[in-house]
Design a protein that fits this description.
By secondary structure, the protein is of the alpha+beta class. It has helices at residues 2-12, 27-43, 49-69, 81-103, 211-224, 251-265, 297-302, 330-352, 379-383, 388-397, 418-431, 507-513, and strands spanning 118-122, 130-136, 139-148, 154-157, 167-169, 184-187, 189-194, 237-246, 275-283, 289-293, 305-312, 315-323, 368-373, 401-404, 410-415, 440-450, 453-459, 462-467, 488-496, 502-505, 518-519, 533-534.
């Protein structure tokens, strides 16, 4: 792709403009004559960025006034502000570079390998899932980690079919679905970097992210992505927002360090802690050079290189180089990488001293997420017409959302509590007839009362029958008046018949709750492994015969035996005709 772009540029591109604004001959020497000693002394004094900027601005203003008024510098009296400012930058850069090369001392008093003081503390925002305030010298980042579901993931449409480590491909992932869309993927981890003008003491328009913010955020994201666990180990989508509150160099690397601590505070089980550092370079035409660790903003502006390196104690996960000069050798790169490794190790140690330390557990405010695997053929039954069924399950269970992850049967449940997760799983299993036989369902609403039993709502659009013979331990001839539409009842799931009818039992609940054995004599379940049989000690003995009172005569049971129809349906009772007593009444389909 790069070769094609280069070839295209050769055909239709225009030559780059390389001309520069150069100050008139002798102007830099005049500036050095007027302010050289004062500026050199200023760069040898350890001051903050703001303090140095105030003093330096005063010296610059006084110097320009002397150039305009002193007859000694009459040749430069008519120069405009832009030309003077360019010359001043050359002059200031030369002094800073000379001091570092000659004395090994930087403008804040550090040696070339020293790292600025580091402090960090977690849980600074108690209502977030994870937060960290990371400070390194005069650079500070407030990082917040937020956990969500796949519906919160960022969709990425790339030009190639492969995706980065922070993305689950919709083509290849065992969780995401095969959509046949090549490079389309879900970015389960993403970092958003925000650099407001106030971070450098300025007022400015606040709007959408610019190219610089996008680039810095992408670099920090790439640095942290390899440490984020895959979805089958940690089912959450992770979003990190880094807001720079103060900046004096290497705010993107502060975002890496703060983002790592924020995710640990949110309970994300990172494979390794990750830190980042920005390296600088001063390279002279004679070949002399010095590599700087943890550069300041002024060293970035007046130096020759900004080399950002991020990774864990085991290796590098991301790097980026901005270079202003030619002549970078392998020896320079080896030294820069060695110093970066030492600096990164020091920063990781300082991050371990974070106080308060990251909680490393899920926040009470974080959503609960669970993955359920169902048969892909049953996805349509779960979703329902226009999503009606799945929305009903969300409303009935109290879940926040239920997301189907493509077409391979993976379903993600998002809720604010474990109880809602459990309820949603149960409703999904009920809807798809995958609930284990013998499961007791509490407080289910009666939908309707008939002569032969109760219809009970199990899930949105899903109901089952509690036959008259399964309402009580005793034999009944009619539904007791205590049961009516809207009543709540505990039932045991008995599975489904061959024709898809769901069977329930209230008697099974009564016997199980009192420790008595229970066995159902009805038709065998078609999807849940057979009928239940329970005993007081929790075992399930096999049923060897019809229970006492299971005959279809005398208004007892209506299941199986000679009175059961061949298709597995129960025999339904009818109202006795005039003149028929209970002793002569025999159940049947007619009426």
């Amino acid at each position: 792709m790069c070769q094609q772009l280069t070839s295209w540029a050769a055909q239709v591109g225009k030559s780059k403009r390389i001309e520069r604004v150069l100050p008139p001959a002798g102007l830099k020497e005049a500036l050095a004559d007027i302010a050289g000693d004062r500026v050199e002394q200023l760069y040898k004094t350890a001051l903050t960025k703001d303090e140095r900027a105030v003093v330096l601005s005063t010296i610059q203003t006084e110097t320009f006034q002397i150039l305009q008024s002193d007859v000694k510098y009459l040749a430069f009296a008519g120069l405009d502000e832009i030309t003077l400012t360019v010359a001043w930058k050359y002059f200031e850069s030369a002094i800073m570079r000379r001091i570092v090369l000659r004395d090994g001392i930087r403008s804040d008093g550090r040696s070339v390998t020293d790292i600025r003081p580091i402090t960090s503390r977690c849980a600074v925002l108690p209502r977030t899932h994870g937060s960290t305030l990371f400070t390194r010298g005069e650079t500070q980042a407030l990082c917040v980690a937020t956990l969500g579901s796949d519906s919160d993931a960022q969709k990425v449409d790339g030009i190639r079919g492969d995706v980065t480590a922070s993305i689950d491909s919709e083509e290849d992932s065992p969780i995401a679905a095969a959509g046949g869309r090549g490079g389309m993927g879900l970015e389960r981890f993403y970092l958003q970097y925000y650099f407001p003008p106030s971070s450098v003491g300025e007022c400015g328009r606040v709007g959408p992210a610019g190219r610089r913010e996008l680039g810095h955020g992408e670099l920090a994201q790439r640095a942290l992505a390899p440490a984020v666990p895959p979805q089958d180990q940690f089912p959450y989508t992770v979003r990190v927002e880094s807001t720079i509150t103060e900046s004096n160099g290497s705010s993107s690397m502060a975002s890496v360090c703060g983002g790592c601590l924020a995710m640990l505070d949110a309970g994300v089980p990172l494979t390794d802690p990750v830190a980042g550092i920005a390296m600088g370079l001063i390279l002279e035409p004679d070949g002399s050079y010095v590599v700087l660790s943890d550069i300041l903003g002024s060293e970035d502006a007046l130096g020759d290189m900004d080399f950002k390196v991020a990774g864990s104690a085991r290796g590098i996960s991301a790097f980026q180089m901005d270079i202003k000069v030619e002549g970078i050798t392998l020896d320079i790169m080896k030294q820069a990488l060695a110093q970066a490794a030492a600096g990164r190790s020091h920063i990781l140690q300082e991050m371990e001293a974070c106080n308060p330390a990251p909680s490393r557990t899920l926040s009470r405010w974080a959503p609960k997420v669970a993955l359920v695997q169902i048969s892909p053929e049953k996805l349509g039954f779960l979703i329902g017409p226009g999503g009606k069924t799945i929305r009903g399950i969300v409303a009935a269970s109290g879940a926040t959302d239920i997301v189907t992850l493509g077409n391979n049967g993976a379903v993600q449940i998002i809720a604010t509590s474990e109880a809602a997760i459990k309820a949603a799983k149960e409703l999904i299993e009920l809807q798809l007839d995958e609930l284990p036989v013998g499961t007791i369902l509490r407080q289910r609403r009666v939908e309707g009362v008939t002569l032969f039993g109760l219809f009970v709502e199990l899930a949105p659009g899903k109901s089952g029958l509690v036959h008259l013979s399964e309402l009580a331990e005793d034999n009944l001839v009619e539904v007791p008046p205590q049961w009516k539409s809207g009543s709540l009842i505990d039932v045991m799931y008995l599975g489904t018949t061959a024709d898809g009818k769901t069977r329930l039992s209230h008697k099974g609940v009564l016997l199980t709750d009192t420790g008595k054995p229970y066995a159902w004599a009805g038709p065998t379940s078609s999807s849940s492994g057979g009928p239940p049989s329970t005993s007081g000690n929790g075992t399930r003995p096999q049923r060897t015969g019809s229970p006492s009172g299971s005959s279809s005569q005398g208004g007892g049971r209506w299941y199986s035996g000679s009175s059961s129809s061949g298709d597995g349906d129960v025999v339904q009772p009818r109202t006795p005709r005039a003149g028929e007593g209970s002793s002569s009444f025999r159940g049947g389909r007619g009426g």
